[in-house]
Amino acid sequence: MSSKPATRTERDPLGALEVPADALYGVQTLRAVKNFPISGLAPLPAFVDAVVRIKRAAALTHKDTGRLDARLADAIVEACDEILGGAHREQFVVDVYQAGAGTSHNMNVNEVLANRANELLGAARGVYAPVHPNDHVNMAQSTNDVIPTAIRLAILGELAPLAASLSALRGSLAAKGEQFDHVLKAGRTHLQDAMPIRLGQEFVAWSGTIERAVRRLGDAAEYLRDLGIGGSAVGTGVNVEPEYPSRMVAHLRAMTGLQLRAGDRIQLMQSMTDVASFSAALRSLALDLSKISSDLRLLASGPRTGLDEIVLPAVQPGSSIMPGKVNPSIAEMVNQVCFQVVGNDTTVAMATEHGQLELNVMMPVIAHNVLFSMRILRSAARTLDELCVQGIEANVEQCAYWLERSAALATALAPRIGYAKAAAIAKESVKSGELIRDLAAREQILPPEELAKVLDLRRMTEIGVPGEDDGRSKMEDGSGSP
Description:
3 domains; two-stranded antiparallel sheet; Fumarase C, Chain B, domain 1; Fumarase C, Chain A, domain 2; Ribonucleotide Reductase Protein R1, domain 1
């Protein structure tokens, strides 16, 4: 018969509970664990780090002002440093879906730090002396200013790794654009034949799309640099020393290397729209990434019954029943990640709207969804880059095959023979299967040399009227202007 796990008795205003003897967390954390057995999802590391950094900055600030005894402050700081170094991570146990505002998570951190600080000072866990979770670790703080500040710090801290992953993907797309610049292919609009484009131009355009997405993220992140720490319960700063907000920002800036500012504490407590705007930028990125992934899947479709214009790296067998089948697995994964991010953003938007008066109590779900989106987008972009884009090859012959059969090539004839006649040629080409080039030659609609110039496929992929001087020579010698 197994023995009962050792416990210690702790009390809060609601009564006593038996807390595991080896736990660094305490009674309020355990009460939250019992109240919210919802998802089994623990807080994301970036969020834990952000809250711990706030506690560390607070201890240093109160040591500076003399409000907190230096011995206690140093013990709290040491406990924070252990956690930031990777220790005690299993002690953060409150479910993502919890009571409003994040009080449970805030107290989880307060209790862990208090117990560990007391151990460092030679005291036992659960005694909360000389360091108390509320009186010392949470000094001059409220969940209501800690959690929104932590969300901002966590997002800003995770932005650089996400941007780096996206920049690497952008670079690989640009490199493929250069590699495939010579590959002429059919363009497609409405999934129907359209004018020629170079495969490289498609990749360069995707590269530019990612670059713009990164800039949008950076623009949205600027609003997150304003911190409301020091607002305390309702933003007014009750129980907070006047120098506390500026000192907190200075310590957090030194700790993180981030450019941070003290903001309007009441406004920043009431509104989560800055975070919602960043989430919307993540959604826009997801829409772009998903579209690119879907395009890759279309271009690689086949290999016999699809477009087959590019070949994606084979990363795994594609079927449990069809031998030799290889699927666009990485691109499919990215699509799924992007769908999740769009759903996360919807949650953030609804939670942002649902704040009332002085506080948005839906912050826990906002924090989780934004940070989770950043995590999976970062991983998806890196995987798409390394296991897919870098290994893409062009099927030059297939691109040329489809291009010559595009009915849209008749568009190049329209300036010479008129839209109606060009449309008739296109219609006849589709009906008979004869190439536009051969049909136009047989019909002798233009002299052979002129027809060859008009149907120069490479020239069709640049600005200008097919068969005519596009003015580039004049611009190059300075006699014309763009």
